[in-house]
Specification:
The chain has a single domain, classed as Ferritin (Up-down Bundle), CATH 1.20.1260.10. Helices cover 71% and strands 0% of the residues. It contains seven helices and no strands. α2 runs antiparallel to α3, α2 packs across α7 and α5 runs antiparallel to α6. The two termini are 31 Å apart.
């Protein structure tokens, strides 16, 4: 059971601030630099196990496996920052841009939490984070240029796949690692909410071949990030 403090969803202003294309480009570059090389601070407390939950001492092998899984999760959050940044840059709808930016702020919490847990486990982030960010940014921009309904559909499919991936990690984490599980559970709940919000905003279903290609790309990423 997750004991993180319940929080309200970010409020999207009725009159979001409108930035020029150059401003958004500069902000996008800044986001990339901070995502890949910066230190991240969460706006919410890091989720922790429920009082009384059994938190066993982990062996060195269990720590390595937990760290590898949390590194994969951290890569997922790097990709999420890139996707939301590119989709925010690509939409002309100020309200939708604000929705993407609000979701990205929650993904920043995930970045901070996974980084903190990696340090606790003696692990490290992926050496390929610049590559993950660049690739995800390009994919997100293509989705955005395909129109807002397609861009939102891409969000829905991405978050549904991430939900499935996080559920698998809840099964794969070492039995005694309740600290990592608490983080993964909250991340999963946030991703579900992001998908639901995109669906409500007018997402269309992506074609089956596109969904399959997304799953294949995600599999390559997770297998690579588990080691590197």
């Amino acid at each position: 059971m997750n004991t993180s403090t319940p929080h309200q969803r970010p409020t999207v202003s009725a009159h979001p601030i409108e930035h020029s294309p150059l401003d958004r480009l500069i902000m996008g570059v800044d986001t990339a630099l901070r995502t890949i090389w910066g230190e991240h601070t969460a706006s919410r407390p890091c989720p922790r196990p429920a009082p009384g939950a059994e938190q066993a001492m982990l062996s060195e092998a269990e720590k390595r496996e937990a760290a590898a899984l949390m590194r994969v999760n951290h890569v997922g959050e790097v990709c999420a920052q890139a996707l939301y940044a590119s989709q925010s840059l690509g939409t002309r709808d100020p309200a939708l841009r604000a929705q993407f930016e609000a979701a990205a702020r929650e993904e920043t919490d995930h970045l901070a939490w996974t980084e903190q847990r990696l340090r606790e486990l003696g692990g490290r982030t992926s050496l390929l984070n610049p590559l993950w960010y660049a690739g995800s940014f390009a994919i997100g921009l293509i989705a955005a240029r395909s129109g807002d309904p397609v861009s939102l559909g891409f969000v829905v499919e991405t978050e549904r796949q991430v939900e499935h991936h996080l559920n698998s990690h809840l099964d794969r984490l070492p039995a005694g690692d309740e600290a990592s599980r608490a983080i993964v559970r909250q991340m999963r709940d946030d991703e579900i909410a992001h998908a639901d919000a995109a669906q409500a905003a007018g997402a269309v279903d992506l074609p089956a071949p596109v969904r399959g290609l997304m799953r294949l790309t995600a599999k390559v990423m997770t297998l690579t990030a588990h080691r590197f």
